[in-house]
Design goal:
This is Glutamate or tyrosine decarboxylase. The chain is globular. The protein is about 40% helix and about 10% strand. The structure holds pyridoxal-5'-phosphate. Pyridoxal-5'-phosphate binds next to helix 6.
Length: about 475
């Protein structure tokens, strides 16, 4: 054995204690760590022939890179849709690394950690009030890959409706995909899957200040397809204003027309945890496939998301992801192996952070996280609405606040100045043609005081502007 590896093996206790100390220092100091950095100059180094061992590598890492690690897992990082990590999720994530399983199967003699993954999916379905047994779910790296996975099965379905096997024969002929406000990652998935992103047929949004799909326009577009089957990508929470498509209305159309109903509920799915908001998802348990992120509102570390595909589509799913050309025999769920049901073959035990966090905090814990985030969004929105300088661009429907300056053309400059202060972080967007800012509340740590600190920093930024 290499000398340095031997030494590290003997010093595991010391090494892991050092990592614990580092983790503790970081997590307890998170409130004071800046949410952005200004000095980004890091000189790249070469790979040495002689290594230094884990303790020295950690010390070197800290001295060189600590300064560029921002508090994105802290309470005032409201950019994109950034979750945090609950303590139990960190336990699961660390242990997933320690156990280092390659999660694929639920039967056999080797690694059968897929059992844990399937149990975690069941726990999530229970958390979200979805039927336990209707979906086959699995973990992927993020909602992008979840959209990709769901749309790959949808594509296979669509091919079959047109009489061919796309997984084997490729895309022959034009396939129809419709959506109103798809997340960019769905459009990216369409590009990866060979649909061609520009072939997406845009459905109008509802009148008024809405991002949800106009179902009258949808039906009109469906009629123009002359009975051709298609895929519908619906939104369970758009990113700018968290608008939800009318799922019950979509269900009615599903009785009349032949389409695959995909739903991107990356973070909106967690509305199910808050009784006052769960109605937004009414009817979603009928979707053919659903995308849900865990590294957002479930508050587990990156990279973590899952997909749900109705079990009745399991053959299509297996045709899409089958890892060999061997003819398959019997029901694919009988001899279940994840490598035939999702894009990756080898994978870590991705379910473990979610398993730990769900066990540790239960439905009440997640109800509190979700309701807390919604309350914080309302608090920020109340400030914006009262202000003479800011303008709220859409009502707060769930957990994001979309706003601009009354002098809209200055808003991005304001945002850079605000972000540079490092107290709070938000991201730029364009909403209905206006330059705007989004603040998304997805972190279990965020308190009323954090909103006040952010408001303070916003006001100070204005004064210096
Ligand atoms: C974040 C998000 C995605 C993409 O998710 P990643 O985890 O970044 O891959 C897709 N859809 C929606 C609605 C999202 O909010």
């Amino acid at each position: 054995m290499n000398e340095l590896l031997k030494k590290d093996l003997n010093e595991l206790d010391l090494i892991l204690n050092q990592v614990k100390a580092e983790g503790l220092e970081f997590l307890t100091g998170i409130n004071n760590r800046p949410t952005s950095i200004s000095n980004q100059e890091i000189a790249y180094q070469h790979l040495e022939e002689q290594g230094t061992g884990a303790i020295h590598a950690l010390a070197e890492f800290k001295s060189r890179f600590d300064q560029i690690i921002v508090a994105s897992t802290g309470p005032r990082y409201w950019g994109f849709v950034t979750g945090g990590s609950t303590p139990a999720a960190i336990v699961g994530d660390w242990l997933a690394t320690v156990y280092d399983q390659n999660t694929q199967t639920i039967k056999g003699q080797g690694d059968i950690s897929a059992i844990i993954e399937l149990e975690t999916v069941r726990l999530l379905l229970q958390l979200l009030g979805l039927p336990d047994d209707a979906y086959l779910g699995g973990f992927v790296t993020g909602a992008t890959m979840s959209n990709f996975t769901c749309l790959a099965v949808a594509r296979q379905w669509l091919g079959k409706q047109n009489g061919y096997d796309i997984a084997k024969e490729g895309i022959s002929g034009k396939l129809k995909v419709l959506s109103a406000t798809p997340h960019s990652s769905s459009v990216k998935s369409l590009a990866l899957l060979g649909f061609g992103s520009q072939n997406l047929i845009k459905v109008k949004v509802m009148p008024g200040n809405r991002e949800a799909m106009d179902l009258q326009d949808l039906e009109k577009q469906i009629l123009e397809l002359n009975g051709a089957p298609f895929i519908l990508i619906s939104s369970g929470g758009t990113v700018n204003t968290v608008d939800f498509d009318d799922f019950e209305g979509i269900l009615k159309l599903k009785e009349k027309y032949n389409f695959w109903w995909h739903m991107d509920a990356a973070f909106g799915a967690f509305a199910a945890c808050a009784p006052a908001y769960s109605h937004l998802l009414k009817g979603w348990e009928q979707a053919d496939s659903i995308t849900i992120d865990c590294h957002k509102w479930l508050n587990v570390p990156y990279e973590n998301a899952f997909f749900l595909v109705k079990k009745e589509h399991r053959l299509l799913q297996m045709e899409s992801f089958q890892n060999s050309n061997a003819p398959y025999l019997g029901d694919p769920l009988e001899n279940f192996n994840y490598l035939n049901f999702l894009p990756e073959n080898s994978r870590r035990l991705k379910a473990l952070p979610a398993w730990f966090s769900l066990k540790a905090y239960g439905t009440k814990g997640y109800q509190d996280i979700v309701e807390g985030c919604i309350a914080r969004a309302m608090e920020l929105a109340a400030f914006i609405e009262k202000s003479d300088v800011f303008e709220l661009l859409a009502p707060v429907r769930l957990n994001t606040v979309c706003f601009t300056l009354k002098e809209e053309e200055q808003v991005f400059e304001f945002l850079s100045a605000l972000n540079a202060k490092g107290i709070v972080f938000m991201t730029p967007t364009v909403y209905r043609g206006k330059q705007a800012v989004r603040a998304a509340f997805v972190n279990w740590r965020t308190t009323e005081n954090d909103v006040l600190m952010a408001i303070d920093s916003m006001e100070q930024t204005l004064r210096e502007f």
